[in-house]
Amino acid sequence: MPRMIFLNLPVTDLKRATAFYEAIGATRNPQFSDDTASCMVFSETIFAMLTTHDKFRQFTPKPIADAKTTNQALFCLSADSRNEVDDIVGRAAAAGGVADPSPKDEYSFMYGRSFEDPDGHMWGVNWLDMAVAPIQPDMAHA
Question: Which of 91, 138, 85, 88 is nearest to 110 (CA)?
């Protein structure tokens, strides 16, 4: 079985957050969703667990950061083309997110843009052509 990743994101309005992630292409898995959480499926291996603040507090004693004013993590999704990058960011903006809070990445081998969800969580969307991507000497041993 391939490894899977589950991002757990605290949200202030679960219905709004669920609709936002559906608008950018994720689907809600009702098997792992209820009135405190929505399991949003991006692929067979990538999931975002949107949780109410009360639910999120069950998993950590630490205070919940306000993602609109602080940043602890950046998430990134891959795209199959430059057009798909633009499409996802456009859908994010149309659904109430903020398009391009970070500068665009424009290279011959890579194209990337970003968006913030309504709670301020930052996402990148990148297309990368591995066949022409340069090899970084200092990364070869990483």
Answer: 85
Q: What are phi and psi of 8, to 5 degrees?
A: -105, 115
| 129 part of a folded domain | yes
In the chain, the DSSP E strands lie at: 5-11, 27-29, 37-41, 46-52, 75-78, 98-99, 105-106, 110-116, 122-128
Type of residue at 83: N
Q: Do 83 and 140 lie in a common domain? A: yes
Q: Does 1 have pLDDT greater than 70?
A: yes
Print the domain residue range for 142.
74-142
Q: Is the pLDDT of residue 120 over 80?
A: yes
